[in-house]
Amino acid sequence: MPRSHSGGRHELGQNFLTHKPTIKRIVEITAATDGAILEIGPGDGALTGPLSRLGRPLTAVEIDEHRVRRLRKAFPGARILHEDALRADLASAPVIVGNLPFHLTTPLLRRLLRSRNWTHAVVMTQWEVARKRAGVGGATMMTAQAAPWFGFTLHGRVPASGFRPMPSVDGGILEIVRRGPPLIPIAERAAYEAFVKRVFTGRGADLARILAAASSLSVREARLLLDDVGCPRRALPRDLAAEQWAELWRRLP
């Protein structure tokens, strides 16, 4: 295939999904949702084909102009857009599906979590990203910041051999569901995110001291509050559940 004006295969960060059990699983998860579908980075159409057979409106965003032409011929019933997913309108459909370019996973996830209207997202990311976003082994700051508005579920690990060309790491299927209603009002999101950042980046011998430094609480008050919301004395910020973060935020003076 000719080189894209946006860069070659590796410059575009494309590792095309070929693992049939994973393709089937992603489509099964998507089939359990409702509404139009927006696919990010369809590549050669491994997911586009089975998604189009769900009988729902389907739009795909692809940066490689040569693949756009091939996809339009192969799937005339789908709307294929020649766009960069980092600039495309991700709020145009209630369901987002995609094999995210591994080198763009974090900016795409950040953009997705900032976009309104969509209700479900089923995305392929690096295994470590999917595992951490789902809170396996402890949540990241980004997950804790988004948790009052989104739920994250890990649906399995995908071997590196299930991609072409084969990346250096495995992949993971991550489902993101927008909460309704949210645990914290959306108007408080910026302030809440700043609070979470202070806790994650704060210093202290234990979580109570970190929380005290990140708020106007005394260490004693912070310790009592953590006990009230069910946080173990030796817990770290990564160990808190979404409901615990929300309760801490609601009860701060």
Automatic annotation (TrEMBL):
It comes from the Bacteria. InterPro entries: KsgA/Erm, rRNA_Ade_diMease-like_C, rRNA_Ade_Mease_Trfase_CS, rRNA_Ade_methylase_Trfase_N, SAM-dependent_MTases_sf. Pfam families: RrnaAD (PF00398). S-adenosyl-L-methionine binds at N15, L17, G41, E62, D84, N99. GO terms for cellular component: cytosol. Residues 22-180 form the Ribosomal RNA adenine methylase transferase N-terminal domain. GO terms for molecular function: RNA binding; rRNA (adenine-N6,N6-)-dimethyltransferase activity. Keywords: Methyltransferase, RNA-binding, S-adenosyl-L-methionine, Transferase. Belongs to the class I-like SAM-binding methyltransferase superfamily. rRNA adenine N(6)-methyltransferase family. This is 23S ribosomal RNA methyltransferase Erm. It comes from Kocuria coralli.
